[in-house]
Automatic annotation (TrEMBL):
This is 2-isopropylmalate synthase. SUPFAM superfamilies: Aldolase. It comes from Anabaena sphaerica FACHB-251. It holds the Pfam family HMGL-like. The keyword Zinc-finger does not apply. One of its GO terms (molecular function) is acyltransferase activity, acyl groups converted into alkyl on transfer. The keyword Transferase applies. Residues 2-264 form the Pyruvate carboxyltransferase domain. One of its GO terms (biological process) is carboxylic acid metabolic process. Belongs to the alpha-IPM synthase/homocitrate synthase family. Keywords: Transferase.
Length: 389
């Protein structure tokens, strides 16, 4: 079964301007656990003592999910993570030729020695620790370097190798630049060496392809996929949790693996605490994701909402709805009137037509019409007009 690693608290906090207090982090972790993610990556304790505190608190909160820390390839960082009592440790170090030469000024052998030293240390300190090694910027690194570093890391004790598309470089269907190709090649090459690690993928959204690439990796047999709530992360962020879960279910994963009805509250909470609004047209979690508007659409969905919807909002614990405005027809007005308890007037075609006309005028202000708050007033105005005419 596919596993989900949520990195809202690590990668997500790398969104410029975002800060989650340890208390907020704990609530987010509790939500993620209720939803059923497998691993929660909390952060690097070396960045700040508050992050170390958050990791410790979440690690002792009795959650089902494995709780993880992110770490530079350094013994002191790893020790700090171990001191937080984590179940999972993610160590990253690039083996890209350019990075080794231009940034670290070391050769591949020295890099691999460092990776092996750090992973061996972590494994010795805590033998049941789940260790992930990420050759950062995997997909723009020579594949031979990746295979060599991954082989050494697994032999030193790593259980998971993550393919990081650090810059959103991969593209589905490309013959050798697709994450499908990387997952298949890495799996095959490691299996040829008698090594069977779990393969994780971390897809950035620089070209808007993070989700497509994650699904491409899933198709290639990846075992773990990284996500964040609202797709938060460096630059354009990573794969959005809700979008991935919906797509995995669509591709045949069992719906019961996840409690999607907690997504809405989690997204509202993260939006509030990150001070980043969820766009109304955001798939799955946006306010309009299951809202129907234009006349033909609303007329059809009053008979069967699947006529204009391929997803079932009920698995998210929500219902589809209608919006009112310039594009509306009589069906939407009737439906909205019934929704606010005015079935009596909804049958009166003349009044409905008047209300529709008024709604179209109001819509020119260019902001949504609030059915519960505004429709009663509109009805009132139109019925008075009707009486007076
Ligand atoms: C980072 C880079 C990273 C690391 C991923 C990982 C990436 O911000 O440190 O450690 O698995 O995109 O490569 O997020
Ligand atoms: Cu990243």
């Amino acid at each position: 079964m596919i596993k989900i690693l949520d990195s809202t608290l690590r990668e997500g906090e790398q969104t410029p301007g975002v800060y989650f207090s340890p208390k907020t982090k704990l609530v987010i972790a509790q939500f993620l656990d209720l939803i059923g993610v497998d691993i929660i990556e909390v952060g690097n304790p070396a960045v700040h003592s508050e992050i170390a505190l958050a990791i410790k608190q979440i690690a002792q909160a009795g959650l089902q999910a494995k709780i993880g820390a992110h770490s530079l390839c350094r013994i002191d960082n790893v020790q700090m993570a171990l001191d937080c009592n984590v179940d999972f440790l993610g160590v990253f170090f690039s083996v890209s030729q350019k990075r080794l030469q231009q940034d670290y000024n070391i050769c591949l052998e020295t890099a691999i020695d460092k990776i092996v030293e750090v992973i061996t240390y972590a494994k010795e300190q805590k033998p049941d620790l789940l260790i992930r090694y990420t050759p950062e910027d995997t997909v723009r690194s020579p594949i031979e370097n990746v295979i060599e570093a991954a082989t050494a890391a697994i032999k030193a004790g790593a259980n998971i190798i993550s393919i990081a598309d650090t810059t959103g470089y991969t593209t589905p269907f490309h013959p050798h630049r697709s994450i499908y190709f990387y997952v298949k090649t890495l799996k095959e090459e490691l299996e040829n060496r008698g090594l069977y690690p779990q393969i994780e993928v971390h897809c950035h959204n620089d070209k808007g392809l993070a989700l497509a690439n994650a699904l491409d990796a899933y198709r290639a047999g990846a075992n773990i996929i990284d996500v964040a709530v609202m797709g938060l992360g460096e630059r354009a962020g990573i794969v959005d949790l809700a979008e991935l879960l919906i797509n995995l279910i669509d591709m045949g994963e069992e719906e019961k693996n996840w409690q999607l009805n907690y997504l809405k509250d989690l997204y509202d909470f993260v939006s509030e605490h990150s001070h980043i609004l969820i766009p109304p047209h955001q798939p799955v979690t946006g306010k309009n994701a299951f809202t129907h508007y234009a006349g033909v659409h609303v007329k059809a969905v009053t008979k069967n909402d699947r006529l204009y919807q391929s997803l079932n909002p009920e698995i998210l614990g929500i219902k589809s709805s209608v919006a009112l405005g310039m594009q509306s027809g009589c069906s939407a007005v009737e439906l909205a009137m019934k929704q606010i308890g005015r079935e009596d007037l909804a049958k009166n075609k003349e009044i409905v037509a008047k209300i529709l006309q008024e709604i179209k005028e109001i819509s020119k202000r260019g902001t949504p019409i609030h059915i519960e708050k505004e429709l009663p007033e509109i009805i009132e105005r139109c019925t008075i007009k009707q009486l007076m005419s």
